[in-house]
Amino acid sequence: MQYKFPKNFLWGAATAAHQVEGWNHNDWSEWEKENASRLAENTENNISSYTRRWKLPDYIKNSYPSPFSPENYISGRACDHYNRFREDFDIAKSLGHNSHRFSIEWSRIEPEEGRWDEKEIAHYQEVINALRERGIEPFVTLWHWTLPVWVAKQGGWENKKTIGNFARYAEKIVESYPEVKFWITLNEPEIYTMNSYLRGKRPPQKKSFFKFLKVYRNLAEAHKKVYIIIHPTWVSDTQVGIAKNNSYFEGWLAPILNYLWNNWFLNKIKNHQDFIGLNYYFHNRIKGFKYNQNENKWVSDPVWDGNFWEIYPEGIYHVLKDLKKHNKPIYITENGVADARDVYREKFIKEHLRWVHKAISEGTDVRGYFYWSLLDNFEWDSGFAPRFGLVEMNYRTMERQIRQSAYAYAKIARENSVTA
Ligand code: FCB
């Protein structure tokens, strides 16, 4: 079957500054220095000696950096995308992408409170120009989880002052690049607050339910403030949204979780968004009081570098159908799989798109799809081990190697249709 997508559909891939640029100095880079050894030990301890010796697949055993070594958990030069963005956009163009999502690193733009680094502002201008020159539409994220060290020292998003500081930074950025049409203010506020405050696993590792709520609210305020700044002052066809990670829940708790996790934030900002960015990765079947009772039928052979995330393409359909009630255009701002061997990726993309197509054919206004990610990159506290890229990174040589699935996705983008 051939599934044709709407005219002018956007096809691309996404990245985030801290994960690809290299040599960032922010709250994450500080945290990595302190936690790399612990993260390496945890990985070692989570694997039995039997598995380590006999069952660990070669591609994990031989991977560089090794997930059992601290260097895996230090972003360092990452993909050196800061210097190689042109080469990377050449690849995106050669793969038929007509759009690209990336983020601007606040800590580069405002390394000290109130001091703008004009060189860095010029750098992102070059990034935007490089995309435009290649006929690629930029989707620009203003905040993808990292904070300048001075902001973190002031309490980060717990401190209401950060809302004003973020708005001032956003205003500077938006004024600097008036040609950008699509702005994503925040990436996954719910995943950030959950990991950093509810579970206390990622910086600033403050485990507290009250802080979690406070930060979540402050993020919603920050988004609204930036929306208002962008709208009255800027050209009317500028589109502003967030990238929201929604899960497909099943089971008796599904309606409550769907409301709290998937819709609370969107309802809170409903008069302050032009589109919804959807990041879809998760299905969560609840049985009794147990979460994630998923079967993972799709994968016969575990995807080790994907930390065994379940693959459940149908979920994207249900999530999209649920989002329809907000009556906004939807862009899928992330969807992807960590699969170093590239055995599942092509099918993963096609199956998800088949379900996206079904949602569209039933009246959901989906206008674009960004695969996560263009390149393998620094996957936060999992380090370099998960390989999400359409393009494989050799972290020793910085060589880029286009994966087979990337060509399959290129065909989809060029033909504006999926054959599955
Ligand atoms: C999302 C993040 C992105 C990347 C993918 C795998 O939650 O937005 O930066 O880590 O997961």
UniProtKB/TrEMBL annotation:
The keyword Transcription regulation does not apply. One of its GO terms (molecular function) is beta-glucosidase activity. Keywords: Glycosidase, Hydrolase. The active site is at 334 (nucleophile). PROSITE patterns: GLYCOSYL_HYDROL_F1_1. Transmembrane segments: none annotated. GO terms for biological process: carbohydrate metabolic process. Belongs to the glycosyl hydrolase 1 family. This is Beta-glucosidase. It comes from Candidatus Giovannonibacteria bacterium RIFCSPHIGHO2_02_FULL_45_40. The lineage of its organism: Bacteria, Candidatus Giovannoniibacteriota.
